[in-house]
Amino acid sequence: MFEIRPETPADEYEIETLYDLCFAPGRTALSSYRLREGVDRVADLCLLLRDPGGFLQAAIRYWPVRVAGHRALLLGPIAVHPTAQGEGLGGFLMHDSLERAREMGWARVLLVGDAPYYSRFGFARLDGVEMPPPTNPDRVLGLELQDRAWAGIAGEVTRDPGAETTSGLADGAEPSHIYPTCHETGQPRDGQDDDETAAGAASDQRSERS
Ligand SMILES: CC(C)(COP(=O)(O)OP(=O)(O)OC[C@H]1O[C@@H](n2cnc3c(N)ncnc32)[C@H](O)[C@@H]1OP(=O)(O)O)[C@@H](O)C(=O)NCCC(=O)NCCS
After folding, report:
1. Per-residue pLDDT tens for 145-178?
2. Is the dihedral of CA 77, 109, 121, 139 positive or negative?
3. CB-ligand 1 contact for 38 (6 Å cutoff)
4. Is 142 helix (H, G, I), strand (E, B) or coil?
5. Where are the domains of the chain?
6. pLDDT of 6-35, one tens digit each?
7. Residue 116 CB: number of other CB atoms within 10 A?
8. Which residue has its alpha carbon closest to ligand 1 atom 29?
């Protein structure tokens, strides 16, 4: 049984280590990180997933931002340990966190990433929403958690250091659990190697710099 729960300060080192493993060196130089500097994360939506042995297998984080004055969530980074990728853990974290965001009353989410992956969760290109340069506009994707929440919204994405980032929803809440059908050993599957992970990270970096 895997457990999903909001991260705590004690998890910080493990999560940063997982991100360092899954992304190319220099990930914090990406332009999207400028939106996160000096801003508290949305604590209730920063989730981690541990396997039955307690090992960290995946993590997702969210920050508050503004787009032309409108509140929005910036999704990312999300990462799954290389030995567990392709087994549904990333998808589970996406669905679980987005559902929590909806329950908390957030209306809209954006991210910088691969449309072929994120479209399965309902994300689509956001025309006219500008991430700090250099960011490839084709990779700026949005999701509406409320009806027409992105309609008519365009402009620069900016930091939101004054945002309310806790809702209290997570206080006392039971963690989520999932029962995977195929994650048995924690070893790489046949045909999967580190190149896939490296390619994902490099792709994100290239795009934000292109
Ligand atoms: C991207 C990532 C979070 C996905 O998590 P995951 O648990 O491996 O993915 P899931 O098991 O939920 O989904 C697997 C599916 O997503 C697809 N997929 C994974 N990464 C993809 C990408 N970058 N582009 C398109 N499809 C992708 C797989 O091909 C697979 O497709 P299928 O269902 O048709 O077989 C994970 O692979 C990862 O951590 N990658 C390295 C870090 C990264 O690139 N993070 C995202 C940028 S913030």
Report:
1. 999 999 999 999 999 997 776 654 444 445 677 6
2. negative
3. no
4. strand
5. 2-164
6. 999 999 999 999 999 999 999 998 889 999
7. 7
8. 86
Q: Ligand 1: which of 80, 192, 203 to mutate, most ligand atoms within 8 Å of CB? A: 80
Task: Identify whether the C-beta of residue 153 lies closer than 8 Å to the C-beta of residue 108.
Answer: yes
CA angle 59, 88, 109 (to 5 degrees): 55
CATH topology of domain 2-164: Aminopeptidase (3.40.630)
Phi, psi (degrees; rounded to nearest 5) at 198: -60, -40
Concatenated DSSP letters of 147-207: TTTTTT--EEEEE-TT-----STTTTPPPEEE--SS--S-SPPTT--HHHHHHHHHHHHHH
In whole angstroms, what separates CA 29 from the centre of its chain? 17
Ligand 1 contacts CB of residue 89 (under 6 A): yes
SS3 26: coil
Separation CA 112–CA 104 (nearest Å): 22
pTM of the predicted protein model:
0.85
The number of helix segments (H) and strand segments (E) in the chain equals: 4, 10
